[in-house]
Amino acid sequence: MTGQMLITGGTIINEGRSFKADLLIEDEQIVDVITDPSQSATLNPPVSINASGCYVLPGIIDSHVHFREPGLTEKGDMESESRAAAAGGVTTIFDMPNTVPQTTTLEALDDKYRRAAHSCHVNHAFFFGATNDNYPLFAQLDPHHIPGIKLFMGSSTGNMLVDRDDALDHIFQAASPLPIMAHCEDTAIIERNMAETRRGGDDDPAVALHSFIRSEEACLASTTKAVALAKKHHARLHIAHVSTADELDFFAPAVSSSLPAITAEATLAHLLFSALDYSRLGTRIKVNPAVKSPVDQFMLREALTDGRITTVATDHAPHLLSQKEGGCRRAASGMPMVQFSLVAMLELVDAGVLSIERLVELMAHNPARLFEVRHRGFIRPGYQADLVIVRPHAPWTVTPDIIESRCGWSPVEGHQYQWHVEQTLCNGHIIYNKGQVDDTYIGHPVEFR
């Protein structure tokens, strides 16, 4: 985009404040935050957006998605899933390494960036995956162009388990200055629980038992180990998709904008659903780690506001519905949520779970702080104009025809939301406008540190 754009009449949510202001954008960046309407009246930009009655937020940074490309593109790819992101107000995504091939070599990492340069409609970056023996490559990674190292300390989709103690020591020692995002489940405990469940003769136990098999004990044991390794090697550790109340004891509340070295992520699955929802939604809410008890769900929601949770992400993981058939063994784990994460969290704002200012902290500011994202995540002059405009009191229902993800379904189908994403701007370009995605636009690779 060249020239100017003016967004008028909206309520800005930024850095703990809610206030009326207009935004002047020029050549991809925010130029001015204008609190005097008479000053805006003197401007005559070629593009103007009337945001009256709406809230203007920094674009959402989803630091945990699985866009399935390369190798798993029957489920989704960068083009289809970034369309879903744009429609949901997400302007930046960090993609996970469990693709085919896995993103565990420099060549595979470069290949992902080449693919995204032709097809990803939002800003993008890619985690480098740790294996039992690839830690010598960490020194060759450019810390300005990747968010961090993804470590699977539990077996999950893609079979990237790292389970050797010597390898874990090397990984935590070699990762700096990059943060480690860890999937924490103890595989031995999971396998023991699965064997116990199958003693009754059922080779594919019912999905209602998924929370027993991938238990609280399995999560707590692995998180305990990860935290100990991080402290031993003075590493920066971000625990992905925390699912239990007990794990929350490891995380200290953040003080103002200063983040501790060990932090936690909550994902939509564990905030929106509990094990009670298996009877209603079955394998559509089968994820790893499993959704847990209503008490765990309640405590995770509490931790959104007291600072123990640092970021909220989706763990967006599309599968075909045919791949979700079966029980604990056969049904694939993961759900597509990137298109509905913001409106779902705004629903929790309406329910009094958190404030809208805290939502912006968790979904934009803190991901930018944690991963040291350059010039994104805040509404500030000189920052990239990544923005989302949302309208309250605008009810609509999730139906299959509006789902942008290639898999074509969502666990929130049939749900009525009261907030509506009106427009999404990526680098000052309107990539989503009231139901339409601009599929000609390609986002930027994200810069870090």
Describe this structure in words.
This protein is α/β, with parallel strands linked by helices. The chain has twelve helices and 22 strands. The strands form five sheets. A seven-stranded mixed sheet has the order 3-2-7-17-20-21-22, covered by helices on one side. A six-stranded parallel sheet has the order 11-12-13-14-15-16. Strand 12, helix 4 and strand 13 form a beta-alpha-beta unit. The protein starts with a strand and ends in a 12-residue tail after the last strand. The relative contact order is 0.18.
List keywords for this structure.
449 residues; alpha/beta; six-stranded parallel sheet; 12 helices
**End-to-end separation:** 26 Å
Report mean pLDDT, rounded to a whole number: 96
Question: What strand order characterises the main sheet?
Answer: 3-2-7-17-20-21-22
Tally of helical runs: 12
Parts with pLDDT < 50 across at least 5 consecutive residues: none
- Residues in β-strands, percent: 15-25%
Structural class: alpha/beta
